[in-house]
């Protein structure tokens, strides 16, 4: 088998399935163009986190008429576009409870190329409240059958400057995170954003810690590994001082890694969620332009994007599997 692409409806959600001989990517066009599945076919293992939200609830939802509350509302898991995550445009202010608009609505799509060697999907959306136009193009090729290539453009379609934070909310879990797991990030420094949010009276450097011995709410952890089973809640932090826009999760049992690469110019930080649930491990690798947990601090320290009217950003991502010898 070589490349293929097909359109289906999964419980009312229009969905595009893209494949090479090695991987399968499932994109929920009807719900934020979320990357719902990224599967290594030889083992039939999906590295993306799948939430407890039953997909069946979308049988009775029409997101064209009433969008979701935010990017986390009734999330099915996977990788969603939290854009704008937080921000301000004219009198419209976004925070966690109403942010991530792009993930709350259906997108449009067009199959640009469908051949045995190469498939290309173009998706786009115009967001309400913040007039942003987004295009994302997904490419799979037999020349590199382990890699999903994503290009993205973001344009201010409004008539005034807009300021916003922007996070690629990518959560990994499931069978892929069982066994001996290592997390590789190109920085050994983290910023404890929640601790700063609760008490912001100290210097920013006093909220930093080492990833290999991080003093968090539930104890001291080596974040190069998942949280231990005894942790019932979750930990959130932000990797800063990144040398490259690159992070990977390695499953030594499978001899397989999944790597995410991104443009450090537009996403200088990586927000990260670590959780251990009854169903297994969750790890977030979330490229972002923001280091904080509140919009007021993002504004104060300048960790946000400002777009003038008609200004466009062009960026991209690579998500790939690699066999570890």
Q: Determine the strand fraction and express it as a percent band.
A: over 45%
Annotated CATH architecture? Distorted Sandwich
Unreliable stretches: none
Give the helices and strands as they follow along the chain.
Answer: EEEEEEEEEEEEEEEEHEEEEEEEEEHEE
Largest beta-sheet details = 8 strands, antiparallel
Average pLDDT metric: 95
Instruction: State the secondary-structure class.
Output: mainly beta
CATH topology: Beta-galactosidase, Chain A, domain 5
Measured between the Cα atoms of the first and last residue, the distance is 25 Å
Number of discrete domains: 1
Q: What fraction, in percent, of the residue positions are helical?
A: under 10%
Overall shape: globular
CATH top level class name: Mainly Beta
Architecture blueprint of SSEs:
Blueprint: E1 4-10, E2 13-19, E3 23-28, E4 34-40, E5 45-46, E6 79-82, E7 87-89, E8 92-94, E9 108-114, E10 118-126, E11 132-141, E12 147-156, E13 162-164, E14 167-172, E15 181-185, E16 189-191, H1 193-198, E17 208-210, E18 214-216, E19 219-221, E20 234-240, E21 246-251, E22 256-262, E23 269-277, E24 280-284, E25 286-288, H2 295-301, E26 305-307, E27 312-323
Antiparallel strand pairs: 1-2, 2-3, 3-4, 4-5, 6-14, 7-8, 7-13, 9-10, 10-11, 11-12, 12-27, 13-26, 14-24, 15-21, 16-17, 16-20, 18-19, 20-23, 21-22, 22-27, 23-24, 23-25
Task: Describe the 3D structure.
It contains two helices and 27 strands. It is globular. The chain has a single domain, classed as Beta-galactosidase, Chain A, domain 5. It is mainly beta. The strands form five sheets. Strands 6, 14, 16, 17, 20, 23, 24 and 25 form an eight-stranded antiparallel sheet that branches. Strands 9-10-11-12-27-22-21-15 form an eight-stranded antiparallel sheet, with no helix packed on it. It starts with a strand and ends with a strand.
């Amino acid at each position: 088998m070589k490349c293929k692409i097909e359109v289906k409806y999964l419980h009312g959600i229009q969905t595009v399935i893209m494949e090479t001989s090695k991987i399968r990517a499932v994109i929920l066009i009807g719900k934020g163009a979320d990357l719902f599945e990224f599967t290594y076919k030889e083992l039939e293992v999906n590295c993306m986190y799948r939430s407890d939200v039953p997909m069946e609830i979308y049988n009775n939802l029409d997101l064209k008429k009433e969008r979701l509350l935010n990017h986390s509302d009734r999330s099915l898991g996977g990788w969603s576009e939290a854009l704008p995550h937080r921000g301000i445009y004219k009198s419209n202010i976004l925070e966690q409870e109403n942010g991530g608009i792009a993930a709350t609505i259906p997108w449009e799509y067009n199959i640009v190329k469908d051949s045995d060697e190469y498939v290309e999907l173009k998706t786009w959306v115009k967001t309400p409240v913040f007039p942003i136009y987004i295009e994302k193009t997904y490419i799979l090729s037999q020349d590199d059958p382990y890699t999903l290539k994503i290009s993205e453009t973001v344009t201010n379609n409004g008539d005034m400057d807009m300021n916003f934070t922007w996070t690629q909310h990518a959560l990994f879990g499931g069978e892929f995170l069982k066994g001996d797991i290592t997390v590789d990030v190109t920085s050994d420094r983290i910023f404890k954003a929640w601790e700063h949010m609760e008490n912001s009276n100290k210097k920013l450097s006093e909220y930093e810690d080492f990833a290999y011995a991080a003093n968090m709410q539930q104890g001291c952890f080596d974040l190069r590994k998942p949280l231990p089973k005894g942790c019932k809640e979750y930990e959130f932090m932000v990797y800063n001082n990144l040398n490259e826009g690159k992070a990977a999760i390695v499953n030594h049992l499978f001899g397989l890694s999944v790597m995410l690469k991104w443009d450090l110019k537009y996403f200088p930080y990586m927000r990260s969620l670590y959780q251990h649930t009854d169903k297994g491990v969750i790890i977030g690798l979330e490229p972002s332009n923001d280091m904080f947990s509140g919009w007021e601090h993002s504004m104060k320290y300048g960790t946000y994007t400002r777009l003038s009217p008609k200004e466009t950003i062009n960026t991209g991502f690579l998500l790939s599997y690699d066999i570890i010898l």
